Amino acid sequence: MGRGLGLLRVLASFVRLYCSPRCLVLCLNANEQAATLRRLVLTLGLDRRLLPRVVDARNNLNERQQMYKRGGVFFVTARILVVDLLSNHVDPGSISGLLVNDAHHVTETSIEAFILRLYRERNRDGFIKGFCDDSVALSSGFNRVEQVLKHLYVRNVFLYPRFHVAVNSCLEKHQPEVYEIEVAFSPSMKIMQEALLVALEATVKELQRNTKSLDAADLTMDKALAKSFSSFIRRQLDPLWHKLPAKTKQLTMNGQQRFPSPWLFTDAADRLLTAAKERLYQVVDPKTNKPINLRLLGSSNIANAGNAQLKLVLEQNSKWDALKEILDEVHDEQKKRNRNKEKLAAGGANVLVMIKDERTEIQREKRAFDKLIHQKAHLMMPANVYDLPLHMKLRQQTVEYSMDTRTGGRAKSHRAGVKVVVDVREFRSALPSMLHKEGLFVLPVTLEIGDYVLSPEICVERKSISDLFGSLNSGRLFNQAESMRRFYKTPVLLIEFTQGKAFSLQDVSELGPEINATSIVSKLTLLILHFPSLRILWSRSPHATVDLFKIVKKYQDEPNMEAAAALGNGLPMDDSAAQGNSGEGGLASNYYNTSSMDVLKKLPGINEHNFRKVLASVKNLAELSRLTLDKLTELLGKTNGKKLHTFFNSTA
Q1: In the beta sheet, which residues pair with residue 273?
Q2: In the list 78, 170, 489, 545, which could disulfide-bond 457, CB 3.0-4.6 Å?
Q3: Where are the alpha helices (DSSP H) in 97-157?
Q4: Helix 629-636 crosses helix 638-649 at what angle (to 10 degrees)?
Q5: What CA–CA distances, in Å, run from 481 to 314, 477, 491, 535?
Q6: Is 440 in the same domain as 523?
Q7: Number of domains in the chain
Q8: Of the spans 66-80, 221-235, 349-363, 513-527, which averages the highest pLDDT?
Q9: What is the DSSP letter of 440?
Q10: Lowest mean pLDDT among 48-57, 134-143, 451-460, 491-500
Q11: From the record, what ranges are coiled-coil (predicted)?
């Protein structure tokens, strides 16, 4: 639908239709509009007892399960719903359908697409309906409509622009009386606008000369005036960012101090700054009280307080005057009509609109709908709106065979593991969805150590580029690496880049011959030197990460979800759950206080060969300190027992 045509009212009509205990309907991407939708369904005559409820982090597992059983419509947070589906806390077969608000956000890597895939795998009878009022976003990119339909598992698309017959006839029945009030620019504002246009045109031409990878059709003044022009240019240049010259980076990153803006040194910038200052103050002659031309007056004369005087101007915003007049007029009308609400309810309200000459938003929306109508006429509908269940995907995977002639060339190779334990906080990223799509079993659980557990010995901490910089600067990555090293034999740091962006941490020109405290490469080097057992995986995108995980999991045992969840949070583990989860300390059977372990290892007479025996014999350090010399000798040996006994019993 066109923006502003009442998409929430349409969504509220569908919500009202399914508000019944006989069905269970879940609404995605509508938590922020929940209050508005609840109010709208009440105006449609819904019983208050059947009002839709919000399911978010404030509801625990038992509450959510009871709510799902009662039925009705629920506004659900996407991350909570995907965890409930994977953990079988809600049966997809019991869900009557899904309502997806802001359907243009559904992409291959989005969490909404993950939810829809989980739903369609186990429920082929329920309905899915998507709602969108951002025609520009839906028409951007290559085959965007087809991709959205594919991930929504639907085959029908309905377009309702402003010029649609039904929409136009509805709007014509209730024509408002509109007054358009145009706010004129002051002389100084006109000078500033002209200077900005000149500077922008010069910047665009300079960008055309320095960047050959950009299409000349995209570098026009009409497109440069759009708000999305800067982000569009960055998306085009991101894959080649580390190869671009410094001049191009200055032109595209002029908002950062690292890249000063070249246009600031032009005549247009000088006129802009001068006009901006004149809106705030003027330099006047104290004798005649007339403005002084700063360019004609020398700086030495300006410094002389007797030759010039600063006078505040503080030019008032033109919109304030117009707005004050409108509010005064509205106030007078309200007094005259004595708040005649009946006339307002009948649709006789006057709408005062303060606009600019260019109606760019309406023009962009019309062009977007024209493109959508053309795409719909030539749309390649997905032949299959269902997704194969996970067990069928696994069955269809190609079976690998050994080429060893001594085994006849037909011996099956060891099959890679298919289970991955994933921290529930990682469902904000695209990787869990990609893992499931490639046929791996995703086991959601709250992990205190790491983000992904691939086997009893391998734990992975995933870092995006922005998160990597932040974690290294704050020291959080050091603590995370220490925790993984303590409990897992092979700690892994996964550095995942964004698809479509440069596969480089920093430019080659920024690499120095020596360690630099501010360099990301230097910080990574120090991290590796401190943790020699830490392995680093470099991934270009979530798709590449899935391939890496499959390779790493090959010939590895399946991870234990209970054991992974117990590590690091003080929960006891039984022997079967803890088997194999042995890190540097080899703690496979129980969880121990890590701080006490560090103190224990530093005591005289305690080493890597006997500290496990001490852990199994005493409960805490206090009990250890009370043992006699004979007990310590029996536990640690004569030499080590005497060292520890002397340490505990010597006077300070």
Answers
A1: none
A2: 489
A3: 111-122, 135-139, 144-152
A4: 140
A5: 56, 6, 7, 10
A6: yes
A7: 5
A8: 66-80
A9: P
A10: 134-143
A11: 190-217, 323-375
One domain for residues 148 and 52: yes
List pLDDT tens digits, range 394-423: 655 544 444 444 545 444 444 555 899 999
Query: Cα separation of 422 and 429, whole Å?
Result: 11
Query: Do both 501 and 602 map to the same domain?
Result: no
Q: Is the dihedral of CA 70, 74, 77, 82 positive or negative?
A: positive
Q: For residue 133, give the CATH number of its domain.
A: 3.40.50.300
- What backbone torsions phi and psi does residue 470 show, to the nearest 5 degrees? -65, -40
Q: Rounded CA gap, 193 and 29, in Å?
A: 39
Check whether residue 34 and residue 164 sit in a common domain: yes
Cα–Cα separations (whole angstroms), residue 470 to 257, 464, 473, 475, 520: 19, 10, 5, 8, 10
User: What span, in angstroms and rounded, lies between the C-alpha atoms of 172 and 362?
Assistant: 18
Burial of 296 (0-12, 13-18, 19+ CB in 10 A): exposed
Q: Which residue is associated with the tokens 């269902």?
A: 386
Task: Please check whether residues 234 and 159 belong to one and the same domain.
Answer: no
Answer yes or no: do 336 and 249 share one domain. no
DSSP state of 317: P
Tens digits of residue pLDDT in 585-607 = 444 434 556 677 778 888 999 88
The answer as to whether 292 is a domain residue is no
Residue for token digits 């969108």? 132
Residue % of the chain over a pLDDT of 90:
21
Query: CA-CA distances (angstroms) from residue 373 to 169, 196, 366, 382, 584?
Result: 20, 37, 11, 18, 62
- The CA-CA-CA angle for residues 395, 397, 401, to 5°, reads 110
- The C-alpha atoms of residue 266 and residue 258 are separated, in whole angstroms, by 19
Structure tokens at 27: 């609404």
Which range marks the domain in which residue 218 is found? 187-280
Joined tokens for residue 51: 């009002």
Task: Find residue 28's DSSP bridge partners.
Answer: 100
The tokens for 461 are: 């901490």
- Quick check: 210 and 251 in contact, CB under 8 A? yes
- Report the pLDDT value the prediction gives residue 28, as an integer from 0 to 100: 93
Rg (CA), the chain: 34
Q: How many CA atoms lie within 13 A of 11 on its CB side?
A: 33
Q: Are residues 600 and 521 in the same domain?
A: no
Residue 51 forms part of a structural domain:
yes
Answer yes or no: do 192 and 122 share one domain: no
Length of the chain: 652
Q: How confident is the model at residue 537 (pLDDT cuts 50, 70, 90)?
A: very high
**Boundary residue ending a domain (299, 329, 355):** 355
**Given this model, what pLDDT does residue 74 score?**
94
Buried-state track 612-648, b at ≥16 Cβ within 10 A, e below 16: eebbeebeeeeebeebeeeebbebbeeebbbbbbeee
**pLDDT at residue 128 tops 60:** yes
Q: What is the pLDDT of residue 115?
A: 93
